[in-house]
Amino acid sequence: MAVTSGCAALTQIVFWLATGV
């Protein structure tokens, strides 16, 4: 579960960077 959360968090960070936020 920790790995899943980490992956989701990383994906969200990448999304933020992609959107310029």
Strand residue percentage: under 5%
Number of strands: 0
- Label the overall shape: rod-shaped
Distinct helical segment count: 1
Oligomer state equals: single chain
Largest beta-sheet characterization: none
Report what the structure shows.
This protein is mainly α and 21 residues long. It has one helix at 2-19. It is built from one helix and no strands. It is rod-shaped and about 25 Å long.
Please outline the helices and strands.
Layout: H1 2-19
Task: For this entry, give a set of tags.
mainly alpha, 21 residues, 1 helix, rod-shaped
Summarize this entry quickly:
The chain is mostly helical and 21 residues long. 86% of the residues lie in helices and 0% in strands.
